[in-house]
Structures
1.
Amino acid sequence: QLNGGATFVIFGASGDLARKKTFPALFRLYKNNLLPKSSSILGYARSHLDHDAFLERVVEHIGKDEDKKTIDGFTKLCTYLSGQYDEDESFKKLDQVISKSEDERGMKSGQKNRIFYMALPPSVFLDVAKECHKLALASDEKSVNRVVIEKPFGKDSESCGELLKNLRPLFSENETYRIDHYLGKEMVKNIMPYRFSNTLFSPVWNSTHIDSVQITMKEPFGTEGRGGYFDEYGIVRDVMQNHLLQIMSLIAMERPIGRDAEAIRDEKVKVLRCVKPIELKDVLIGQYVGNGENPGYLDDKTVPKGSLCATYAAMVLWIDNERWDGVPFILKAGKALDKAKVEVRVQYKKVPGSLYGGVSRNETVMRVQPNEVIYNKFNNKTPGLTEHPMVTEMNLTYKERFKNLQIPDAYESLILDVMRGDHSNFVRDDELDAAWRIFTPVLHKIEQDRIKPEPYKYGTRGPEQEARFVQRYGVEQLTEG
Ligand code: BG6
């Protein structure tokens, strides 16, 4: 826990991420009295903005229905400073502004905590970290410095290793909070309690009973002006190597010995280390084309001509351990698809015997978004004058079950964790290393061999090859719940 308040320094404050996610999350924490009153929020970026223009941007994404008094109270905590990312002078100025604000708020030694939040492009990332390190060195000894880092954490094993190596002397693992915002999502946070606090489900969570696991992320929009960034990374690095793999590690890990951050992350790393590097035969990639109404990926002016970048991918991961031997974990993600949906679909083995020939398999579905739900598909006697079972669902729809509950945004929950000093939902350095080891060889192969992605139309389910691809791994398309 932080003693006293904290100064949040948000680097990249004029960027999309800060405006759409970081500031609104800080606002909700403030509104719910979870931000210590003596906190201060300092936006820092290169753009020349005056204070009012900055506040206007901050308020823009906070929500129209919030009351003015709360918004005013929050914006009073915010200030903006424009400066360079690689210039000592700018950072000296930043230090002065922070110190002045600490004095004005009457912060004593031990209360001058600083949280450096880097919502920055990779090109300036290390420069800022070095400058923050100097600020941290010069700051009050009894107070804490924490650094929050947003992805991308490199592009492959090598670049990630390099980044980690350069950052290590600047901030310790204990001071570092690497955000994968999926770890702050309500349903993702529910995977551990679901698995480890129910005697009902634990015994079947293995290859004896489970046939396949699919983790799917669909987005109904394309790159829309973000093509410059996206093209350098592609869908696998953008969401699969991090968000979907994090979900997979929670689904597949063993029971940790405790609920502290290290115990949990130890188990996640352990299972990731059992995942074999992905082979090309277990991969399907796609790229969206225009549908008459919406432009194709290559029509985006920020995308280089003739790019082979994948905007869709399905990859099958195999875990080489006793629990999961032979069970395919199928990760699928795509932009410009037919709908917005993130879900985990655990498909069980066929019902043995022929007593009720032709009954459906069981399935557990955890929908992360939109509209959080867990449902278990099971067979039940068709009510009425028949004996035959029909497939139905035990359904826990959050909106219906937990009325009036406001599910916190992922960033809200994660920033609160940073304040509390809880690393459980942040990515440890060895997790990153293990994650890149799984994806790097196949990503390099795809790039070296210039493998062409399969085209799919904007607004569809993805490449038409997908259905056959998943069938190869024994997945049955059961009726949608
Ligand atoms: C980000 C990716 O990490 O996650 C984006 O860079 C993606 O491309 C986003 O759209 C999805 O996040 P969410 O919370 O909207 O599902």
2.
Amino acid sequence: MTEMTSGTLTGRNLHLSFGHNHVLRGIDLHVPQGTTASVIGPSGSGKSTLLRVMNRLIEPDQGDILLDGRSVLADNPDELRRRIGMVFQQFNLFPHKTVVENVSLALHKLRRMPKDQARAEALEQLDLVGLRHKAQARPADLSGGQMQRVAIARALAMKPEVMFFDEATSALDPELVKGVLALMADLAQSGMTMVVVTHEMGFCRNVSDTVMFMDAGVVVETGSPDQLFTAPQTDRLKRFLSDVL
Ligand code: ADP
Ligand code: MG
């Protein structure tokens, strides 16, 4: 059998402080290839910082990050960032560029793909997120949901092994949330390895393989969605769930 293990992501005992603020206090996580881990927890608990440390936008003070079982900390950080696609709450699209240019730009500039090929690749990704017909539009002419689907297409165009989502639907009008969540669910179904920071408890419950509940820089509970939602073990998680559900 051929090995299909590309994309298994592991963090071990990760610590990170901003000055005196000890934000990550020994985080462990393991996301097997092809699975989706949701990260939930109150504001300020360190969820966004965890994603930024896991793709080495910030270097951890302590701990290790492994991809496919191999530590990546000795590599050039750019390499890990290439292997992990990231989608933020704010879409960060270039306003003066067309949709297809937004998707093809990094392929051309960072991957050195010839312009025609980058454009063809971008159109294919736009097709997958249902927005090929908007290729020539500017971001301002799109709805927030469409902008976020463009941002997802842009990340996918780089052929990442893992995708991170940081509250990807939090800035969207309620009626636009569903379409983006459906796209994320499709992506999870298709076998992408994903780490999803979200307040969408329905998505968390129905799509993720594991859920991590963070509070004050530690993983307080982790397990299957059923375990966490139907049988929370700690008062902190019980309180959190009663606030958000
Ligand atoms: P969450 O995403 O769970 O809301 P964050 O990871 O954004 O939490 O923040 C965790 C803590 O780290 C907060 O106390 C926040 O103020 C602090 N923090 C986040 N980013 C920075 C930064 N760039 N500089 C200093 N402190 C930061
Ligand atoms: Mg955050």
3.
Amino acid sequence: TSDEILLSIEGLTVSYGAVEAVRGIDLTVKRGEIVTLLGANGAGKSSTLNALVGLAPRKARRMLFDGTDLLALPPETIVRRGMTLVPEGRRVFSSLTVDENLMLGGAKHAARGNPAAVKTNMLELFPILAERLHQKAGSLSGGEQQMLAIARALMSSPDLLLLDEPSLGLAPQVVDRIFDLIGNLRDRGLTILLVEQNVVQSLEIADRGYVLANGRVELQGSAADLRASPEIQDAYLGA
Ligand code: ATP
């Protein structure tokens, strides 16, 4: 972790017609950190991530990523600047092969690196995908599809990876593998903003966290402080 602020959001709101999903949140992510965004269903976590990459209707006083004003950029440009979202529900292209899925992740963003070189790197990080390279993505297990969704996002060589509930619906052992992977990615220098329902494991791996409730930040702090806080203990850790 450095002190360099990579992402800085002030007064973010997301509204879908009359529904205010996010109501004026401030959020920062420093380079090298894992920051986790926690909260109940409907708290506004996915809307926040989607808003960051321009995929949800957003307003903000300020939205800066690596010195760039995000409010001025369309989604495809945001990816090229180095921020990529892995959306909830691991949306891989089932009828395409693993290899084709990966190349789609790299194709649009060739500006950020040589896709072939990035892919070689990726297959080292995900040996299971190397073994399944010419298999249809739809034939992979849920955990493998999540790996593929993450690998595809990494093909754009992001500086900041946004992960929306990567462990959702996966068996406990597979969840452990996903969290190990997230730790490996951080060790390789990636900065990560992680939305999770899995509060215990998220606070183990994260540096800091925010807890959203009804579209507002209810609690924030270091992961250690959050783990120890009575609010988290009561609401999520079953103390
Ligand atoms: P979950 O874990 O259930 O996805 P979340 O914390 O990620 O919860 P959001 O998905 O951001 O929460 O949803 C926040 C609120 O906005 C909810 O009330 C949801 O119904 C609403 N919402 C989300 N997306 C849309 C949309 N496209 N149109 C209308 N309302 C939406």
